[in-house]
Amino acid sequence: MPLYVYEVVTADDSPGEQFEVFQSMAEEPLTKHPQTGQPVRRVLCAPAIGGQWSDSAMKRSVSDDKKLDKMGFTKYVKAGDGRYEKRAGKGPDVINRDQALGD
């Protein structure tokens, strides 16, 4: 069953209280708040879709150092003030900001 977001309709048309309701797609949209009886409208929201390109899948992909190395990327992680250590890929094992600036 889908999760729908509703918003209380205010007199000045400013955003009102929002709440979520599990409803069948066959059910009519609510017109009144189930507890207070205030008028409500359904709010359009982006669907939460998982899969290969979802945010959580992308975070897992970027956190896998072996996979990044295999794909030809280099990953450095901050190890201190101006110091970065290589975790994947080719290049120097450590990058220091002072060395990069020529100090």
Tell me what the structure shows.
By secondary structure, this protein is an alpha+beta fold. It contains 3 helices and 6 strands, in the order βββααβββα. It has helices at residues 55-63, 65-70, 97-100; strands at residues 3-8, 18-22, 40-43, 75-80, 83-88, 94-96. The longest helix is centred in the middle third of the chain and has 9 residues, at 55-63. It is elongated.
List keywords for this structure.
single chain, 103 residues, alpha+beta, three-stranded antiparallel sheet, 6 strands, elongated
The description of the largest β-sheet is: 3 strands, antiparallel
Question: Helix count?
Answer: 3
| Strand portion | 25-35%
Distance from N terminus to C terminus (CA atoms, Å) equals 62 Å
Topology:
Layout: E1 3-8, E2 18-22, E3 40-43, H1 55-63, H2 65-70, E4 75-80, E5 83-88, E6 94-96, H3 97-100
Antiparallel strand pairs: 1-2, 1-3, 4-5, 5-6
Task: Give a quick rundown of the structure.
The chain has 103 residues and is of the alpha+beta class.
